[in-house]
Amino acid sequence: MKYMTSAEIRDTFLNFFESKGSTIMPSQSLVPVNDPTLLWINSGVATMKKYFDGSVVPENPRMTSSQKSIRTNDIENVGKTARHHTMFEMMGNFSIGDYFRTEAIAYAFEMLTDEKYYGFPVEKLYVTYYPDDQETYQRWVEVGLPASHLVPIEDNFWEIGAGPSGPDTEIFFDRGAQYDPENIGLRLLSEDIENDRYIEIYNIVLSQFNADPSVSRKQYKELPQKNIDTGMGLERMACIIQEGRTNFDTDLFLPIIHEIERLSGKTYDPDGNNMSFKVIADHIRSLSFAIGDGALPGNEGRGYVLRRLLRRAVMHGKRLGIQGKFLASLVKIVGQVMENYYPEVLEKADFIEKIIDREEETFNRTIDAGQKLIDDLLSELKTQGKDTIDGADIFRLYDTYGFPVELTEELAQDEGFKIDHAGFDAAMKAQQARARAAVVKGGSMGAQNETLSSIEEASEFLYDVHAAKSKISVIVSADKKVSTLASGTAQIIFDQTPFYAEMGGQVSDHGVIKNEDGDVVAVVTDVQHAPHGQNLHTVNVLSALTVGETYHLEIDEVRRNAVVKNHTATHLLHAALHNIVGKHALQAGSLNEVDFLRFDFTHFAQVTKEELAALEQEVNEKIWENITIQTRTDLSVDQAKEMGAAALFGEKYGTNIRVVVIGDYSVELCGGTHTKTTSEIGLFKIVKEEGIGSGVRRITALTGQKAYEAFVNSEKTLLEVANVIKAPQATQVLSKVSALQEELKTVQKENEALTGKLAVSQSEELFKNVQNVGTTSFIAAQVKVSDINGLRQLADLWKQKEWSDELILVAKIGEKVNVLVASKKPEIKAGNVVKALAPYIDGRGGGKPDLAMAGGANANGISELLNHVAENLK
């Protein structure tokens, strides 16, 4: 077995399968495209689902890839185990209805044992298989693996509910007796004991059945198209080939760890307590790649995962003694380690560093806030006479504010408190259970549609054509091919068509199909791509349609014209966002409908009003410039990108690509339809900007007639406002409103003055009614005030003299009840008192130790509340 760098390990895998006829597929973004079942791309097969379920037929049924992946349902294990990572690289080879068990096992054995490739000794390899899968057992023996190295395991069957499933066979590498101190041997595998001796390096899933949860596994039907799905972890292979004690002791992590050593002044010991080094090295890889792919830290979804990773890394940096911000300085190290296959990390390093630096700075402030939360919590526990911090509170500090249990424990012990570890563990396990329940292994897959997958008849889409004669190639009704259909719903493929199939955010064309006499025989309601890429028309049949007959196809021109205006405006908006918001504003989705356009993009803050105005202005200026729009089909993807072309989100690009060029302003890879000049768009109006997820913003806009109607409606509203405020002209609305605001301020000041006088008049009698409980004096009463400020003014008057130690006021203001508690005694916290009294009025509240308020809806509870004041002041 020869030494290899991680880059050589990856190249060896990809080149081997390329030599077997596979196409090397590029590693895709960690952020899934059009797949709501996944939070992250979490495996190589996650990017291949459309091929496995038959919804798309690949150009080459043999594919191989090295796919960056993220799994974060067990973040806490990173650093504790030898092989757990949040981000990892999964090498895989895939066969879609081509080679199967015989070839897959032969390829695996050759690649692993041949000296031209990895050159592993055969005696070091052990294989598990599904007990009922004797074909796999026999095939391994045939290629040269000793029968004694084959271990049947009942769990070796891959299924995720209904859909493709099948047995799998896993290959393990024996690292030797030094990793088996109790000399347990092969029982470690057969009994599925977690160990460091037998390391799984390769898994082959034989996807041959259509799983049906309603029947037993032995009754599963064979798939019409059998597939191969495999996975080989790059980090594990590097660990074995480079003879690292763990995955972290390899060239994938050590350069990062060495930089952490320099920053901390501490030394990494592979055999010692090195968890913090591992956590930081792992998490900065995930952060660098995920942010580079457009995900941003936030409070939910992917953003929450990234924020949690960053905070965990920062806290481990503090445990190593690193002072100040440091994570951003590791980004370029990550980029240099991965540059061989992922140059984009270095290309986007400045942006990634900016996001991480800003987030780390925010977290440092959060740590200070967390310190105050702990102080307040401990103070409250002291008041209650408790000596233990509840596990739920520890978990809240950990999960919400990023405080490690160790830090909470240290601060608590300094104040003489204990920690409820069992309660914390229970809360943590509950969260992990929720996370695992939300994870779908590899994402769900639909069942294969044998009828659509079998259709190979060619079909050509006619760009910029609104009507054409065409012959029916295929009619599908009730999931079966038919030669003729008189009525009902059908799916039809023509030899050529002017109907655009939905793609890249542009909705499909609608229209009609006519016979030779000009009569409408079917209405087209939708067009999608069939598995082999043909435009598949969904139609309502009005008169008989027959395969082989010629018909007239006519699209709805009004619909098409509206859609292409919106689609072309999307290109202009994309370019304007780069110019005004920043190059980091990457497209994260789009929808070009008949009545509007919607554009999603990555951005870490709300787009300001000034930026929105600038975007709208710039797009309209490009419309008014009447720029000619060119579509080029003579370029390769690489040539187009050299021109500066950007790939639109969700598009699939084959060998024949289309590049849409709008002067020197915008160059995009796009398969959609567009206007011939920008002036055809007419007008552009942004109507909404909103956040739709962590780090993702959405702009909704209108073009043409819809934009004009929006401006007319705005003008109509303005005129109505002018009429209400009695402004002679719309141009005078602003000055009139300003004058009314000044009048309102004057009235409010007069009202406050009157409220103050009322408070003074009430206070003279109110503050004389002092009661006592123990050594504490208090005033508790219901008062009449017009608003909450009235309560505050009474409290201010009370503070000016030594009327009593405590003040409790209740007022019914409109339909609500408000309670104010003010305290002068340090040992009595106003916030605790108001929380105890609020339930009597069906309310809740809180505040500072010296002043707190509550609100409720039950006025009938006021008397009972006042009767219970004394007992809550003891």
TrEMBL record:
InterPro entries: aa-tRNA-synth_II/BPL/LPL (IPR045864), Ala-tRNA-lgiase_IIc (IPR002318), Ala-tRNA-ligase_IIc_anticod-bd (IPR018162), Ala-tRNA-synth_IIc_core (IPR018165), Ala-tRNA-synth_IIc_N (IPR018164), Ala-tRNA_ligase (IPR050058), Ala_tRNA_ligase_euk/bac (IPR023033), DHHA1_dom (IPR003156). Keywords: Aminoacyl-tRNA synthetase, ATP-binding, Coiled coil, Cytoplasm, Ligase, Metal-binding, Nucleotide-binding, Protein biosynthesis, RNA-binding, tRNA-binding, Zinc. GO terms for cellular component: cytosol. Signal peptide: none annotated. SMART domains: tRNA_SAD. It catalyses: tRNA(Ala) + L-alanine + ATP = L-alanyl-tRNA(Ala) + AMP + diphosphate. Residues 730-764 form a coiled coil. The keyword ATP-binding applies. It comes from the Bacteria. One of its GO terms (biological process) is alanyl-tRNA aminoacylation. Binds 1 zinc ion per subunit. Consists of three domains; the N-terminal catalytic domain, the editing domain and the C-terminal C-Ala domain. The editing domain removes incorrectly charged amino acids, while the C-Ala domain, along with tRNA(Ala), serves as a bridge to cooperatively bring together the editing and aminoacylation centers thus stimulating deacylation of misacylated tRNAs. NCBIfam families: alaS. This is Alanine--tRNA ligase. It comes from Lactococcus hircilactis.
